[in-house]
Structure formats: structure tokens, C-alpha cells
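Summary for the funding panel

The consortium committed to producing paired sequence-structure records for every protein in the target list. Below we show the first two records in order, beginning with the earlier of the two.
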Amino acid sequence: QVRLVESGGGLVQAGGSLRLSCQAPLSVLSIKAMGWFRQTPGEQREMVAMIANNGGTNYADSVQGRFTISKSNAGNTVDLQMNSLKPEDTAIYYCNVKAMRFGVEYWGQGTQVTVSS
């Protein structure tokens, strides 16, 4: 069983910054993409940002220009730098790893991000 190790998150005032990190105990050769989703009560989980193994990135419109996703040189750690946070960014953030093997993906346990107004 693959366990993703998430860190970061917490409580911050609007306009502040937080950084999330996720490490996957996987060979970089087995990873197609890594990133972050978020979910609020009663809502579907939504993609926040993803980075592919070739470095290509994809962001939700709501975070474009405020969040930056990056991965380590080793390729199995992904960070999400979140700036200019807004109360609507409050959610549980989940790390997601999409494997090279078709249909296989892994999820972290989730980390709470709370932005106060």
C-alpha cells in the first residue's frame, strides 16, 4: 500500500501564505503526474493544481496567479505554494499521484487549510 506523506496546512489570515508538501514513496519512473485537490463539506473534490513528469502544469482558474506548484528534482515530492489566500480557499487539501500504470492513482489523507477573513 502506498502512503503519501503530506505536510503543511493550517490557519492563516486572508492575504497570507501557506505551503503544502507531499512525498510519494515511489520511483519517479512510475509517476505520471502529481498535484493537489481540495474539498469542502457537501461539495465535490476539485483539482487545484497538477504537475506532470515533464514539468507541465495545470491550475484551476480560481487559483491561477496565486498558487504555484513545483516538484523536487527527484520527482517524487510535490509542493504547493499558496499566496494571497482567500477565505474561499478554506478546504481539506488532498495530495494526488497519478501513476504511469493506466487507472492507478493514490491519495493522501488530507490536510486542513483554513483562511480567516
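The next record, for a separate protein in the list, is shown here:
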Amino acid sequence: QVTLVESGGGLVQAGGSLRLICAPSGDTTTITTMKWHRQGPGKERELVAAIRPNGQITYVAESVKGRFTVIIENVKSTMLLQMNNLKVEDTAVYYCHAEVFGASGGVWGPGTQVTVSS
């Protein structure tokens, strides 16, 4: 069984940077893809980035290209989201999601709040 915990959220001014961390635990060998999603106030949840355990990036949202970078640290399968040049519209709860072999719907973390002020 896999569980996920996010950290690194907070309050930052526009133009600033944050690094989000998703730390999986349990049988991480069953993870097939890791993703960052976000849900802003009054908005639907959207996919931000996706990456395979071998480091292959499979998706980056157009709205964050050139500003956000997703990385896997393979030793502990920790997924990072480096967010630079943050904008007010990046304000959201950011969720880590792992697609896990044999687990329909995958596994979700509880989320971490990112607030960007103008």
C-alpha cells in the first residue's frame, strides 16, 4: 500500500518561488506514474505535471511551462515541483497523485496550500 504526503506550500509574492515535495511511503515499486494536480478557488481540479519513476516527464500544463519543473529523486521516489515566477493565478491547493499498479483511481495526498499574493 502506498501513501503520499505533500509539503512545501505556503504564501509567496508574485514572482517568487516555492518547491513542493511529495514523499511516498509503502511499496513504492508499485507506482507507475506520479502527478501534481491543483485546484484553485472556484475552479476544477487540473493536472499540472506528470512524471514516471524513471524520470520521464509525460505532461506539463501549458499554463506552467517554462516556470514549473517536475523532478523525481529516485532514491526515495520523492517527487518535487519547483515553481518559479509564481503568479496570482497559481494560487491553489496542490495535490500529489500516484497511479499505482492494481489500485483503481490511484492514491492521493491530502494536499498543500499555495497562495501567491500580488
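Regarding this second record: The first strand starts at residue 2 and ends at 7. The chain has a mean pLDDT of 95.
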